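Onboarding guide, step 5: your first structure request.
Type a short instruction followed by the sequence, for example:

Predict the 3D structure of this protein.
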Amino acid sequence: MLSPRAIAVAVAVFAVLWLALDSGLLTSEPAPPGTSVSLGMLGAVFGGGAFVMQQGGQTQRVPMLVGMALGTGGYALVRAFLF
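The system replies with structure tokens like these:
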């Protein structure tokens, strides 16, 4: 089960990425097509960091890293299939 903190971080990351890359509010240029792949790799790095922190006993950082992994990975999937 995901903690409320992880869900809040995931939603915030997703919103910031949408605002910065695809909303058109911050820049008129669309993000390059390869951005989804980069975001997917970044999500994997955050997920790996969450796993390492869990195994290392620093569980206070795990919800933030899980939320960042879900936010970036989820946005990468949405962006790959919709934009």
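Each response can be followed by summary notes, for example: Residues 4-82 form one domain.
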